[in-house]
Design brief:
Elements lengths: L1 E5 L8 H15 L4 E7 L2 H7 L2 H4 L2 E5 L5 H11 L4 H15 L7 H10 L8 E6 L3 H10 L6 E5 L14 H21 L2 E4 L2 H4 L4 H4 L2 E3 L21 E6 L11 H12 L7 E6 L5 H9 L6 E4 L4 H8 L4 E3 L13 H7 L4 E3 L6 H8 L3 E3 L3 H16 L12 H5 L1 H23 L1 H4 L1
Parallel strand pairs: 1-2, 1-4, 2-3, 4-5, 5-6, 6-7, 8-9, 8-11, 9-10, 11-12, 12-13
Helix pairs in contact: 1-18, 4-5, 11-16
C-alpha cells in the first residue's frame, strides 16, 4: 500500500492539495493501491466534498482530538477565523511542546495500531511543509525500514526562510529541527523539490537522491476553449496569496496610476483584480493611497474552477517579486503560462520568476519605471486595437506544463521500487 500524507482540507484550492491530488490520481491511474491520510478539523466537510469513488481511499485524522492548543487553533481555522491568531497559537505550541502544531503522532499511531499494520512492503509519501507530521511519521516507520519519499514544496531548515515566518522563530526552528531534517534526508529513499534553486540549498551528499518535481499547472481545471481575447475591459489579474514582502516595493501601483492618468483611462475600461488576496489589509491601504479604488477588485480565494474561469478573461497576468528573494517560483507561474496571456513582472526578481518568463517568451520583465510604463502602454495599444493577447503554444504545451505530467516522475520512482521488490521476491533471485 502507498500512503500519501496531506494536512489540509482536501477540497481547498491551495497548491498543497492540488499537488497531493495529482500524486494520488496518477498513482491510481497507474494501478497502484493508494491511501490518503488527511489531517482535518472538519471531517464531515471532507467526506461531503470528496467524490464517492475516492472516499474509501481517504483516511481522516481528526485534529479536534489533539491537545488543547491544537484544538483551539484548528477550531479557529475551521471558522475561517484570524490567521494572526492561528500563528500565535502555532508559536505558542512550539514554546510549550517544542514541536510543530501539526505533530499528531498519537492520531497516526492510533490509526495504524487499530486499522492497519505498516510493513516494509508499504511506501510513505509525505509533502512538506508543515513538518511536524513528517517527523512523527519518520519515527514510526524507521523501525520497520519502510520506504519514505519526501516532497518539499518549500524549504525546511535548509534554504530560505518561508514567507511570512518571523526571522527569530525561523532560527528557533533551525536550532530545534536541523538534526531531524538531516536524519530524515539520510533515511529517505527519494526527495523531490519544486526547483533547481531549492535543490541547491541541500547538502551535496544528499543531492544525488533529489529530483525536481515542479509545481505544474492546474490544466485539468482549465477550459481551453475559454482562453480567448475579451476586449470589454483591460484586465490585469494577480492570482493567489499576496505576501507583505511583495508590497514593500510600491512602484507598480505608482506606475499604474501614472499610466491611467496619462492615457485618460476611466473606471470600467481597466480593472486590476486580486484573486485570493482578500485578507491582506496592507494591499487595501496601498490601493487607497494611489487612488486605485475605482479600478480594483479584491476577492478571497475562489474555488479552483471558478478562479480559472475568471483568469481566462485576463489581458495580462501580474507577478510581484518577493522582496529581495530571487529563488522563489510559485505555482501561479505555471497557471499563468497555461492560460497563454502575457505575464508582467513590473520589477525583476533577478531570479526564477524572471527566468521562467524569459525562457517561455511569456511577457515582460522590467528593470525600471520606464520599462514598466512601456510594457503597460504596449499592452494598452494592443487592447485598443483589438489585437490578440493569446500566446500561441505547441500542441503538447499544456500537458508538459501540467501537474499530471510532473506527477509521472513520482510514479517512475514508485515503479522502480516495485520492480526491485518483484525481482528480489522472484525464485531466480532467491537461488
Amino acid at each position: 500500500m502507498i500512503y500519501t500524507l496531506s494536512v489540509f482540507p482536501f477540497s481547498r484550492n491551495v497548491t498543497f492539495n492540488s499537488r497531493i491530488q495529482s500524486f494520488y490520481r496518477c498513482l491510481k491511474d497507474n494501478g497502484y493501491p493508494v491511501k490518503l491520510i488527511v489531517l482535518s478539523a472538519n471531517p464531515i466537510a471532507i467526506n461531503a466534498q470528496t467524490p464517492s469513488e475516492e472516499r474509501e481511499d481517504i483516511i481522516i485524522l481528526d485534529l479536534n482530538k489533539g491537545n488543547f492548543i491544537q484544538r483551539l487553533a484548528f477550531s479557529n481555522s475551521k471558522r475561517n477565523g484570524s490567521l494572526r491568531l492561528f500563528w500565535l497559537l502555532y508559536i505558542l505550541h512550539y514554546i510549550i511542546y517544542f514541536k510543530d502544531i501539526y505533530s499528531t503522532d498519537q492520531l497516526f499511531k492510533h490509526y495504524f495500531n487499530v486499522n492497519a499494520q505498516l510493513t516494509s512492503n508499504d511506501i510513505i509519501i509525505c509533502s512538506i511543509p508543515p513538518t511536524g507530521f513528517l517527523i512523527k511519521t519518520y519515527k514510526l516507520i524507521k523501525k520497520n525500514t519502510i520506504p519514505l519519499i519526501v516532497d518539499y514544496r518549500d524549504p525546511w531548515t535548509y534554504g530560505y526562510r518561508i514567507l511570512n515566518v518571523n526571522h527569530i522563530f525561523y532560527l528557533f526552528r533551525v536550532l530545534l529541527e536541523r538534526r531531524a531534517e538531516k536524519n530524515i534526508l539520510s533515511y529517505a529513499l527519494n526527495v523531490f523539490t519544486v526547483s533547481e534553486s531549492l535543490k541547491r540549498f541541500f547538502p551535496r551528499k544528499i543531492r544525488g537522491k533529489i529530483s525536481v518535481l515542479k509545481n505544474g499547472a492546474n490544466v485539468s481545471a482549465i477550459n481551453k476553449e475559454r482562453i480567448t481575447d475579451q476586449f470589454d475591459v483591460f484586465r490585469i489579474i494577480y492570482s493567489g496569496t499576496l505576501y507583505r514582502s511583495q508590497l514593500k516595493d510600491e512602484s507598480f501601483f505608482f506606475n499604474l496610476i501614472c499610466f491611467i492618468e496619462t492615457n485618460h483611462i476611466k473606471p470600467g475600461q481597466l480593472e486590476l483584480c486580486f484573486l485570493g488576496a482578500g485578507q491582506e489589509l496592507l494591499l487595501k491601504k496601498i490601493i487607497n493611497k494611489y487612488r486605485l479604488n475605482d479600478f480594483t477588485t479584491i476577492s478571497d480565494r475562489l474555488p479552483l474552477e471558478e478562479s480559472m474561469e475568471v483568469m481566462c478573461s485576463a489581458s495580462v497576468f501580474l507577478h510581484l517579486k518577493y522582496g529581495s528573494r530571487s529563488k522563489i517560483i510559485t505555482s501561479k507561474q505555471a497557471d499563468y503560462l497555461a492560460l497563454q496571456k502575457p505575464i508582467l513582472l513590473p520589477l525583476t526578481d533577478h531570479g526564477d520568476i524572471a527566468q521562467s518568463i524569459v525562457e517561455n517568451n511569456a511577457g515582460y520583465v522590467c528593470n525600471s519605471k520606464e520599462e514598466c510604463l512601456a510594457a503597460l502602454n504596449e499592452l494598452w495599444r494592443k487592447f485598443q486595437n483589438k489585437e490578440s493577447f493569446v500566446i500561441e503554444r505547441p500542441a503538447d504545451f499544456h500537458y508538459k506544463l501540467s501537474r499530471e505530467y510532473e506527477a509521472q516522475k513520482l510514479v517512475a520512482i514508485v515503479k522502480e521500487l516495485m520492480d526491485e521488490r518483484s525481482s528480489e521476491a522472484s525464485p531466480a533471485h532467491k537461488k
